[in-house]
Amino acid sequence: MDKFQIADYSAALKKDLTLFDRWQVLVAALNTTTDATELLDILQKILAFDMHQAQMVRIANDFWFPSTHWVTVAFAKLSESASLQPTTMMLPHGQKVAELHFEEWPNATFRFTKAPLAAGGYYLEETAQNLRVLYWDFNRQRLYLDTQQFAKLVQTEAIQLAGVDALTAFQKRLVAVAEQLMAVGFDIEMPGLDAEKQAGLVMVQKDLPAHVLDSLFVTAAKQQFVLKRMQGDTSGAEISLGDIAIKLTQHRQEDGHSQWTYDIIDHNQIITIYTLLQQLPFFYQWYAAQLAFVGLKDKREVFVD
Amino acid sequence: MTNQDTQTVLQPELINQLDHKILYLGQLQAAISANQVPAVYELLDSKKYNEQIRQRPHADSNESLAVLVADIKPAIAEFLAPELLAYLKSTFSFLVFEQATEQPTQYYVYLGDWWHHRQLGVLDVLDISFTYEDNMLRELTQAAQLSEGDSINALQIQEVNQIIAGLEAFLADDTKRTLELQVIDDQLATLQANKAGLFGRNDKTTRESLEKKQALLLATQKRLPEVQKKLAEQQDELLVLEKADALRKLELQAILSQFASVADFSTMLDKSYVAYLTRLIEG
């Protein structure tokens, strides 16, 4: 049996209290900061914080939260300053990770999960369908949109019920979050999300086979829309939807291949390609069926199932 | 009679013939200079002009004179085309004209400006005539007679869709078959472990039954690539059929938006020579 030393006990306790004092300072700073750089710095310190250094004060209790929780908290702060519509964090009973709720989208909740990548990073995903929206990696300073799953997400009942305005507000929110992160040096790749950047959205596959546009022609015609050949020197096809148009343009390259792009023409700059995927069943039906050819080119390598 | 005498005798006739040609070329030159399009058409084919515009049956042909400008017909067509095409586009707003690369006096005529629009025929600018693709107007007439929602390929599309549904069901069952095979493998392994077991005769019957089922499932699984290939073929076939129907539907909608029937449309198209020149003359 070891000899009990009051001095050693006291020293160990003091060490733990100092450790937790630092922890409290970090959490308090996370709460009060309004600066993106500072927020990310605090978040990284929180994630690097090793509570296991504590010898005497045990951390396995209801007030211990995993890294995904703190990532959620930090994102909520960015989101809060990105939109006039509030972001709410909720901690479901018995869970250790807060869920995010964006006011414009009342029927949906989101959470962060760890990305199964050597590089680390986190996915923001919708909880009902487990559909990813973003990949966020603050170590390598990257924020990328999962265009494939976001296209599926805008088709879900929750966003269909919420309508066009909700999707517009949600996209604006994500764009504003991205702008904050871009300002502090993040690499941002969010194809098609920004209503002001709807030109030259690159498709994944070059040299579209004939059947791809044939099937768009047929799918559109079934719903009384007409795919037309582009006029003038530009090669491609377009569908007119009143004041809005979808253009699919062929860009011939020096290597003999052709790169295809989307242009969504909306002079009011409100509509995005996702708005159209949500609102036009024929367009989504075709997009989903031909995804391997006509999906938006994104940073696919970070999206692992 | 000397050679000179012979020449003297023949001179007036020859000079007369040359005068005719010079007169013809002069008239054509004057008509073009004055932008007198009907006169240009008359000079290019006076028989047609007299018969159809002046309503004089059995008029004489001026083919021997028109031959004089055979080598500059592309240039004459280039002169005539803009006004003619403007008239045709205003009368048949859904038609699209593209100059034929190999024959500049001709224009390909397409129905509509949509994706893979079909060629209705060829327009000859110099005599304002149309040559039609064989089946197109017949198909459109047939499609116009069908009831709302029906189409020429509807039956075939239904059949192909049924085949596709069957093939997709076969492919969807593959997960079920794989699981069944796993279960059979497990059961056979268990039987193998009990080879010297207590229930020899029953085990043998069970094993034989399982092996039979296993062989059947494996044979079915082997058909997968063949079924996938057939599905792709059927989907291609479906797209071809649906595309043809979609094209006909758009073509018909375009025609019927301006004309009472396909026959009325083709009649109007055939009357373009008279309608166009009459308009110019009366205008």
Shape of chain B: elongated
Number of strands of chain A: 12
> How would you describe the shape of chain A?
elongated
Helix amount of chain B: 55-70%
Rg on CA atoms of chain A, Å: 24 Å
Query: Biggest sheet of chain A, strands in spatial order?
Result: 3-4-5-6-7
**Treating each run of at least 4 consecutive H or I residues as one helix, how many helices of chain B?**
12
Strand content of chain A: 15-25%
- Return the CATH class of the domain at 201-302 in chain A: Alpha Beta
Largest sheet report of chain A: 5 strands, mixed
Distance between the termini of chain A: 52 Å
Largest interface: A-B, 15 and 12 residues
Short descriptors:
heterodimer; A: 305 residues; alpha+beta; TATA-Binding Protein; 5-stranded mixed beta sheet; 5-stranded antiparallel beta sheet; B: 283 residues; 3 domains; 4-stranded antiparallel beta sheet; 8% strand; elongated; hydrolase (chain B); hydrolase activity (chain B); coiled coil (chain B); Hydrolase (chain B)
Helices and strands in order:
The complex is a heterodimer of chains A (305) and B (283).
Chain A: H1 6-32, H2 36-48, H3 67-82, E1 87-90, E2 99-102, E3 110-114, E4 122-126, E5 131-137, E6 142-145, H4 147-153, H5 157-183, E7 187-189, E8 201-202, H6 210-222, E9 227-229, E10 235-241, E11 244-252, E12 258-265, H7 273-279, H8 281-289, H9 291-294
Parallel strand pairs in A: 6-7
Antiparallel strand pairs in A: 1-2, 3-4, 4-5, 5-6, 8-12, 9-10, 10-11, 11-12
Helix pairs in contact in A: 1-2, 2-3, 3-5, 5-7, 6-8, 7-8
Chain B: H1 3-33, H2 37-44, H3 46-52, H4 63-66, H5 73-91, E1 95-99, E2 106-111, E3 118-124, E4 129-132, H6 136-144, H7 154-172, H8 174-193, H9 200-222, H10 224-256, H11 262-270, H12 272-282
Antiparallel strand pairs in B: 1-2, 2-3, 3-4
Describe the protein's architecture and organization.
The complex is a heterodimer of chains A (305) and B (283). Chain A is an alpha+beta fold and 305 residues long. Chain A has nine helices and twelve strands. The radius of gyration of chain A is 24 Å and the shape is elongated. The N and C termini of chain A lie far apart (52 Å). The mean pLDDT of chain A is 91. Helices cover 68% and strands 8% of the residues of chain B. Chain B starts with a helix and ends with a helix. Chain B is an alpha+beta fold. Chain B contains twelve helices and four strands; from the N terminus they run αααααββββααααααα. Chain B folds into three domains: 3-72, no CATH class; 73-146 and 260-282; 154-256. Chains A and B meet through α6 and β9 of A and α10 of B.
